[in-house]
Design goal:
It is a single chain. The chain has an 8-stranded antiparallel sheet with strand order 1-2-3-4-5-6-7-8. The protein has 1 helix and 8 strands, in the order ββββββββα. It is globular. It has one domain. It is mainly beta. The mean pLDDT is 90.
Length: 123
């Protein structure tokens, strides 16, 4: 079952399901290889992924799941990994019920990325 992804404003912006990221309508938007997210449309590196928390190129949180502890990666900038082979498009999972809005996680001010989920995907 896909797990919800929330942005810093606690809005549901997507879903994560083993090695894939989907938009709110369950369209495939990214894949995860060796702890890094890659755009499904451009194959560009989006940033590291730890558990169900996705980070930007500077190690700041873009989207997260309340069941995971958010680690602050900054100030160490993540290194760009080698380009992986793009996986086949996964079957579209059934859309889960809308989850309850989580409580805001405690993070230092600079830990949130200025990128929205859509801007992160468009890198």
């Amino acid at each position: 079952m896909p797990d919800p992804l929330f942005d810093r404003r606690l809005s549901l912006v997507g879903w994560i399901y083993p090695e894939h990221v989907f938009d709110p309508e369950m369209g495939w938007v990214a894949f995860i290889v060796d702890g890094n997210a890659w755009s499904a449309s451009t194959n560009h590196w989006l940033g590291p992924v730890r558990g169900r928390v996705c980070y930007d190129h500077l190690g700041r949180v873009v989207v997260w799941n309340p069941d995971d502890n958010i680690e602050v990666i900054a100030p160490i900038r993540p290194l760009r990994p080698f380009q992986p082979f793009r996986p086949f498009r996964p079957l579209r999972p059934l859309r889960p019920l809308r989850p309850l809005r989580p409580l805001r996680p405690l993070l230092p001010p600079g830990a949130w990325s200025p990128l929205s989920f859509e801007a992160w995907l468009a890198q």
